[in-house]
Design brief:
EC number: 1.7.1.-, 1.7.1.13
Distance between the termini: 28 Å
Protein name: NADPH-dependent 7-cyano-7-deazaguanine reductase
Organism: Escherichia coli
CATH topology of the largest domain: GTP Cyclohydrolase I, domain 2
Helix content: 25-40%
CATH architecture of the largest domain: 2-Layer Sandwich
Number of domains: 2
InterPro entries: GTP-CH-I_C/QueF, NADPH_dep_7-cyano-7-deazaG_red, QueF, QueF_N
GO molecular function: preQ1 synthase activity
Length: 194
């Protein structure tokens, strides 16, 4: 299952090299679809690789987004669907997951959130990471199918604005809610240079 975290990285001032931001972003992007046993293994890998590159001591702390409530990165209200106990192996875009994605006839009103939104810029193929909030009224949307659909954007090349519009239109088409709002925040500080 894809995961997301915010990292706090400290570089010792006596290090021989600095790490350029675009190179750092590309290095972080190389972690996509990489499997780790736990967060500590991710932290140790980051510290080892970055310390080697900088030729100095690097320390890394990783924080899940729910640990950052009240911080300036932003907080979405709603039920986060990211921690489901499922295995996802398909990262190619498909709307197939939205086929029959509503449950029963009961009308619900809920807000669902995922921090696993990732696509690639159509021009540069650089990653766009973000969070998405889906607020709707209608037949309940199957959260597993919705998460699989959102994760299927991870190899998709399209401007992030178009991805959000596509998500809105696909949910409208396949789930047919009475009301629908889709809001996404992409992390521009990670998108330096494009």
């Amino acid at each position: 299952m894809p995961q997301v975290a915010v990292g706090h990285v400290e570089l010792d001032y006596t290090s021989v090299n600095l790490i350029e931001s675009k190179s750092f972003k590309l290095y972080l992007n190389s972690f996509n679809q990489t499997r780790f046993n736990n967060w500590d293994e991710v932290r140790q890998t980051l510290e080892r690789d970055l310390s080697t590159c900088a030729q100095g001591k690097i320390s890394v702390a990783l924080y899940r987004l729910d640990e950052l409530e009240g911080q300036p990165i932003g907080h979405f209200n709603g039920t986060c669907i990211d921690d489901q106990d499922i295995t996802i192996d398909n990262y190619e875009f498909t709307t197939d997951y939205l086929e029959n994605a509503t449950c029963g006839e009961k009308v619900v009103e809920e807000t669902l959130v995922s921090h696993l939104l990732k696509s690639n810029c159509l021009i540069t193929h650089q990653p766009d990471w973000g969070s998405i909030q889906i607020q709707y009224r209608g037949r309940q949307i199957d959260r597993e199918k919705l998460l699989r659909y959102l994760v299927s954007f991870r190899h998709h090349n399209e401007f992030h604005e178009q991805c959000v519009e596509r998500i809105f239109n696909d949910l409208l088409r396949f789930c047919q809610p009475e009301k629908l709002s889709v809001y996404a925040t992409l992390y521009p500080s990670w998108r330096s240079g494009h």
